[in-house]
Amino acid sequence: MVQDRIKAVPALRLTTQRLILRPFEMEDALFLFGWASDPEVTRFLRFPMHASLADSKRIITRWIDEGRRPPSFQWAVTLKENGIPIGSIGLEIINSHDCRGEVGYCLSKEYWNQGFMTEALKAVLGFGFNVAAFHRIEACYSVDNPASGKVMLKAGMVREAGPLHDYYRADRLGYQDVMMMVALSDTYVGD
Question: Whole-prediction pTM value?
Answer without folding.
Answer: 0.91
